[in-house]
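User: Batch of two.

Assistant: Item 1 of 2:
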Amino acid sequence: MKEVFAMEINEYQGKAMRTLNPALKEKDILLNSVMGLCGESGEAIDIVKKWLCQGHTLDKEHLIKELGDVAWYLAEAATALGVPLEEVLQLNLAKLEKRYPNGFTSAESVHRDPKEE
């Protein structure tokens, strides 16, 4: 059985960034992070594509590992920007709360102002 533990978001960022390539310059860290996010997201969707379109069983374990890789690159991007990962997540929650104050509805999604991203 897997051990369940709680970890603070910024603690994850700090531990994960121990594996950041020290040879990368600041600009290269940001480039690596956004390219990595795209690549790992592509790997995740490929698992789902195989499940939905090609008759495979959903490989949850593999998908979870790919989502972990997405988390690593997200932490790298926050690091490149000089912000704690927690700040990125808090800003996202604030944006979602403003966009959907009572939770998601299709009507609010369809009729929202595209300038408010």
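Item 2 of 2:
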Amino acid sequence: MNPISSIGDGSAIKLRSVDIPRLADLCRACTAFYELVEGQTPTDETAADILGPLDPEYAHGIKHVWGVEMHGDLVAVAELLQGHPTSDEWYIGLLLVTPQRRREGLGAKFCRMILDWIALRGGATVRLIVHQQNVAAQRFWQKQGFSAERELKKQSGRLHGQVSVFVRSLGRAG
């Protein structure tokens, strides 16, 4: 597979259906994250859902799923939604790094690469949702230049609770 970009000693790659087994392994390695934000452990379907088609309410957008591969292992994934709700707005649906590679700067490098890639495609605003109980994610996204825009209640897996919508302006590319 051809890497899109170099990230530290790894490569960012577009993920495809052939990557589902490796993505499933990554999701299982991140069981604590899924228990925290969904109240359940990841299943074999979790990886397929990340790569799968968009829910009907987002079908006007374009889904992009990237991974970071290091020494043959998939160590991070990002799920992006282009064009929601307008053509120059994006959502980061997921940015997940395996626990063994956290606190090494990989997440921040991956995030910077993603934001640069979005800006080159005309993205002006990026949003994401952070669950109230995920304090580490709140700190991470604030360090990446995101700020809380509003709060709402959301169902995620078995949990229903408060989330914050974080936003960051990228400006117009070009």
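The chain has one domain: 5-127.
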